[in-house]
C-alpha cells in the first residue's frame, strides 16, 4: 500500500478586497522601472509600536509571502506575516482622503491617530 502525500494550498495571510487589488494594479501601472510588485510590512514606529507600510519592491526576499493579484504581485514582509494573519486590506477613497485600510484581528490596540497598532 502506497501512501500519497497531498499538499493543500494555504490561504493567504492577508485578504485583499477588490478595491485593494484595483489600487495595486494602479500602482503597478505607474511603478518605477525595475519594480516587481508592491510590499506590505509593519515597521516599528508610531506611538503604539507598529505601523502599516506599503511600498514598491524591486526584488523578492527569501521569506516574503507572495500573492498574485490580477494587477500585479503583492508581497508581505516575512517578518510581518505573524502580525497580519487573518487581516483584510482595503482601499478606501472619499472626498477628503484615500488610503489602504486594515482590519487586523491581531491588533490589540492602536494610537489615537490610527497610524500605529500593538499586538
From TrEMBL:
Pfam family, one: Fe-S_biosyn
Source superkingdom: Bacteria
Gene3D superfamilies tied to this protein: HesB-like domain
Domain annotation Core: ranges: 16-115
PROSITE patterns the record matches: HESB
InterPro entries from the UniProt entry: ATAP, ATAP_core_dom, Fe-S_cluster_asmbl/transfer, FeS_cluster_insertion_CS, HesB-like_dom_sf
Similarity annotation: Belongs to the HesB/IscA family.
Protein name: Iron-sulfur cluster assembly accessory protein
Organism this protein belongs to: Sphingobium naphthae
Amino acid at each position: 500500500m502506497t501512501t500519497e502525500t497531498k499538499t493543500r494550498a494555504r490561504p493567504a495571510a492577508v485578504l485583499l478586497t477588490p478595491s485593494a487589488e484595483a489600487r495595486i494594479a494602479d500602482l503597478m501601472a505607474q511603478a518605477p522601472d525595475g519594480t516587481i510588485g508592491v510590499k506590505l510590512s509593519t515597521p516599528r514606529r508610531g506611538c503604539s509600536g507598529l505601523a502599516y507600510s506599503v511600498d514598491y519592491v524591486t526584488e523578492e526576499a527569501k521569506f516574503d509571502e507572495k500573492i498574485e493579484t490580477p494587477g500585479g504581485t503583492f508581497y508581505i514582509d516575512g517578518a510581518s506575516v505573524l502580525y497580519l494573519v487573518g487581516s483584510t486590506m482595503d482601499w478606501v477613497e472619499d472626498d477628503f482622503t484615500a488610503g489602504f485600510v486594515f482590519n487586523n484581528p491581531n491588533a490589540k490596540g492602536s494610537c489615537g491617530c490610527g497610524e500605529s497598532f500593538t499586538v
